[in-house]
Amino acid sequence: MECYLDLVKILLVLILLIVPLSAFAESHYDHSESNTFSEYVVSIDEHVYTVPYQVDAHVIAMAIDPELTSLLIGLENTKESVFVIDLEHEIISAENNAFAILVNGFEVDYHIMSDSDSSTLTFYVSDFTEEVEIIGTRVIPEFPVGAIMGFALLISIVAIFPKIKSRL
Fold first, then answer.
1. By the 8 A CB rule, do 94 and 137 touch?
2. Looking at CB atoms within 10 Å, which of 30, 61, 116, 149 has the fewest?
3. Region 65-86: what's the mean pLDDT?
4. In terms of domains, do 76 and 89 share one?
5. CB 113, CB 120: distance < 8 Å
6. Which residues have a Cβ under 8 Å from the Cβ of 8 and sit 6 or more positions away?
C-alpha cells in the first residue's frame, strides 16, 4: 500500500511538471492615443497578438479563457458608445461566425464583418460597462499538449502498476 501511495505522489509531480503553465494569457495595455483604433497587446504562450479596438472607455485588461472559449475584456470609465474590435481567427473564432457577446453579463446583438484572417465585431456598450465577454467555439490555446501527455502517462502507469504488483 505504501508503494502505491509513493507511486501516486510521483505521478502527480510528473503531471504538474508536464502540463505547461504558460497556457495562461499575459496581457499589457498599449497607451498610445489615436483618433482611430487603439491597440491592446495580448501575449499567449510565446505568441504576441495585437488586438485593434475602438470604444469610448479605458481597456484595463484582455485575457483568453480557454475553458470557456472566450475573450474577456475589462473596461473602466465607459461612456455610451459603439465597441469595434478586430480579432484574428487564430486568437478566437466561432463556427459559422456565431459568436455570443456578453456586456456586463447580458447578451447583446452585434454586427460582424469577416475575412480569411480576422473578424471585426461591432456592438453597443452602455455607460459604466465593466466587462465584455466574447464567446467563440475555439480559442488559442485549444488544449495543451502537455495535458494530453500527462493523461497518457497516467493511463500507462495505472495499466502497468497492477502487473508489477502481482509479480512482487
1. yes
2. 116
3. 93
4. yes
5. yes
6. none
Contact 131, 75 (CB under 8 A): yes
Burial classification of residue 84, based on how many CB atoms lie within 10 Å of its CB (0-12 exposed, 13-18 middle, 19 or more buried): middle
Residue 165 structural domain: 1-20+144-168
* Grid cell listed for 25: 494569457
Mark whether 38 and 107 lie in a shared domain: yes
Number of domains the chain is built from: 2
The answer to whether residues 90 and 168 belong to one domain is no
Q: What is the DSSP string of 69-99?
A: TEEEEEEES--SEEEEEEEETTTEE-GGG--
- Residues 48 and 119 occupy one common structural domain: yes
Q: Phi/psi zone of residue 73: left (φ > 0), alpha (ψ -120 to 50 degrees), beta?
A: beta
pLDDT at 47: 83
Side-chain-side CA neighbours of 132 within 13 Å: the count stands at 31
Cell of 125: 456598450
Quick one: 77 and 100 in the same domain? yes
CATH of the domain at 47: 2.60.40
